Amino acid sequence: MDIRNTSSPVIAGESGIHDIDVGGTSKLSISGGCVGAIGFFDNAIAILSGGQINGIRSWYSFPANPNHVTLLCNPGYQLTYTGNVVTKISGTWLDGSAFSIKLHNYSGYSDMFSNMTIIPEPATMLLLGLGGIFLRRRK
Other C-beta atoms within 10 Å of 57: how many? Predict the structure, then answer.
């Protein structure tokens, strides 16, 4: 599923898409629009790069796999903790728009943040890639 745009929220707390559950070997890409909540289980993966996403929840068993949800955002994102568990991530997408996503954690499953990979903005990735190329050439 590829979500690029949806309608704006009509009622406070409601969004263009209320709820998405992604399971099996599904792939989800969100780059815009409004989504109330996303739920993940099995081997589903997602790339999140824009839009308003109010919450994410998962039912991944231990051990956590950090490759289930990839978040593409600018550096400087902030994490909110409840005890020693991350319950919210806030920052800006690559286009500069703000995001704040609640991470819902369920007892008996790995916490949502441990299932996420956060990728820095493209310029950093380009520099890392070029460094790898130069190291390879030196051999």
Answer: 18
